[in-house]
Amino acid sequence: AGMNGTAIENFVCVIFNVSFMNCTWHVGRNVTEDTQYFLYWRPSKKEDITECQNYIKDNCGRHTGCRFENVTIENKNAYFLVNGSRSLLLISSISDYIIVEKLTPPLNVSVNCTEASHRCSIWWQPPRTSHVKKSSCFKYEIVIENK
């Protein structure tokens, strides 16, 4: 429960370099400058809930995001809670969020070309990720340029 327009909007988390995650949001459209938000999360049902320790702030000092380090998400379900405070005002909670992972390039790329057959063989290992364990989940595109 909470007043309309007090919940955060556009909550997005981006995982990068395998173990770092930035979560950002927009403040509710009907809140005042003294409203403050707090982010809690847990990567799985088995783990404890943790509050953000490294908030991103706007010009008014309101929390509009969080930076996490050493992130691992064992499965596709992570759990987030953002609540807020302001005197005499209940803040609505969120129900929708997006998690995106920016992948590193494939690892250990090797190329072997033979002039006689005019063929090249290319090998690589899948990129490191925070939670995808199956290499069959990846699709690759190779661009070959003559130089």
Automatic annotation (TrEMBL):
**A GO cellular-component term linked to this record:** external side of plasma membrane
* Keyword Membrane attached: yes
Major location category of this protein: membrane
User: Keyword Membrane on this protein?
Assistant: yes
Name its cellular compartments: Membrane
Could you tell me which residue ranges the Type I cytokine receptor cytokine-binding domain spans?
Answer: 11-94
Q: Which UniProt keywords apply?
A: Glycoprotein, Membrane, Receptor, Signal, Transmembrane, Transmembrane helix
SUPFAM superfamilies on file: Fibronectin type III
Specify the domain of life of the species encoding this protein: Eukaryota
Lipid bilayer topology: Single-pass type I membrane protein
Q: Name one Pfam family in it.
A: IL6Ra-bind
Name one molecular function that GO assigns to this entry. Answer: cytokine receptor activity
Query: How is this protein named in the record?
Result: CSF2R factor
